[in-house]
Hints:
Blueprint lengths: L2 H26 L5 H20 L6 H26 L2 H4 L3 H10 L4 H14 L5 H12 L1 H35 L1 H24 L5 H8 L6 H23 L9 H27 L7
Helix pairs in contact: 1-2, 1-3, 2-3, 5-7, 6-7, 6-8, 7-8, 7-11, 8-9, 8-10, 8-11, 9-10, 9-11
Amino acid sequence: MKAQTKTALAKAGVGIMCAVMTALCGLFMYDRSKIMYYTAVVLFAIAAVAYCALDGEKYPHASRTVLVGAILTAIVVGCYIIYVTTGLSDRFNDFDALKQFILDSGFWGALVFIGLTVFQVVVLPIPEAVTILLGVAIYGATWSFVLSVIGTVIGSLISFMLGKVFGRKLCNWMFGADNTEKYARILSEKGKFLFIIMLLFPAFPDDMLCMIAGITSMSYAYFTVICLVTRPVMIGLTAYLGSGAIPFSGWGIPVWIALVCLMFAAFVVISGLRKSIESRKPKRR
């Protein structure tokens, strides 16, 4: 297939995708959130016109950026439509209702749970422990751990990619300019080592850090490896401790004492480290 034909098909595909998403926005979003509806329509219109008008050979970087932006916008809008039309927006305040929703999904329940975890990491301002313990209540500690790791790593990669594509403006909008500047500076100065520490302990806003890391020079490969190494640690602790696998009698008593001592020591050390690195002033050039 010739390059011109591929380009024409790509532009037609983006145009069709934007038109379909605009129609879905009109069907499912207009009566719920007009601000989001108009914003989405404008973004899809800009993406369709810009991608079709840009010369991909002359401006390859700009063309790829618009394409990725259009796809990510479609994913976010699609997730929002699913979120409101399935009633998840009402169920998030009811643990039992959310649990029943996943159970009612039957064979697709595991995928629904992974999607919920991804959504929690990227969009929802709720603690990670909520979805992990929800998984424990449905699938048990081990499967909750496995599914939560999959969803969390995917969500972390999406957040990182959003930071790379949309840059500081998106982070400023989501987290505030002060938080974005503070953590971007920290990750830029001592990035690789401190990023590992920050993801390992709950004293730091790890979901926010994933997106802010995207606006730094950190590479996709390094970010992916660090997520695969660090994210399962707290997920495993939350899943197994929250499942009651360690009893409060017999052999469980010394284990709990040791865990409490370790957690307290880690809390003291990390709290001191957090105050130190967050109060550190940027170096003057």
